[in-house]
Amino acid sequence: MIAISLLEKYGAIIKTFKNSDTIFEEGKQPTHYYQIISGEIKMNNYNDEGKEFIQGIFYENQCFGEPPLFIDQVYPANAVAVIDSELIIITKNKFFELLENNAEISLNIIKNLSQRLYYKSVMAAEISSQDPEHRVLRLIDYSIAQLNFKKEAAGFLINLTRQQIADLTGLRVETVIRAIKSLEKKGDLKIINRKVYR
Fold it and tell me: Cyclic nucleotide-binding domain: from which residue to which, for each copy (predicted)?
């Protein structure tokens, strides 16, 4: 999203996180901007029964956790490495200085935040009113469009586990598995070697 060289010019550092490492915790005050060089990061919450709800999954060249940075609010979710990940991190003050000096990057950040807000609005409507198959397919189509999933001979490889799909749609894993099988029978999805393609 923002060139690494530019971030480093403003004092950013590169940091490695292992699988399951926590980057920041829900309720903590934001102090840095985070951008993924490699790996996968999820933002999540847990309900009173301990069930995980995934707010979002972020990949290479994406940033995460920046909304609270702009409005000086605490993080509404945790950020956790799904796999070993390398991030570039810059302090809040230096990040704001970078944005003030680079209008085009500020616009890109606004577009990125707007896209995520749009997605949250769409998914909120889908989760509240649609059947499981529709929810799963809508999430998959959004993910193809926004997360640059790889197109192979069989179609777009859906780089989300059944558990992640469940956590992103508010469904149970068993329901997601049934929905995917049903969507395969209808020809909307393909399952090859346990991998899902659209």
Answer: 15-116
Check: pTM over 0.85? Answer yes or no. no
CA–CA gap between residue 166 and residue 16 (Å, rounded) = 28
Interatomic CA distance for residues 127 and 101, integer angstroms: 40
* Rg of the chain (C-alpha set): 18
Position 126 in a domain: no
Query: How many degrees, rounded to 5, is the angle at CA 132 between CA 131 and CA 138?
Result: 95
Q: Do 17 and 23 contact (CB within 8 A), yes or no?
A: yes
| Helices within the chain (DSSP H only) | 4-9, 67-71, 92-101, 103-129, 132-146, 162-169, 173-185
State the 10-residue block means of pLDDT for the chain, 198 residues long.
95 98 96 97 89 88 93 95 97 97 94 84 72 89 80 90 86 92 94 91
CA distances 19 to 14, 64, 79, 80, 85, Å, are: 17, 17, 12, 8, 7
Q: Report the sign of the C-alpha dihedral through residues 57, 59, 65, 66, in that order.
A: negative
Domain that residue 16 falls in? 4-119
Same domain, 113 and 140: no
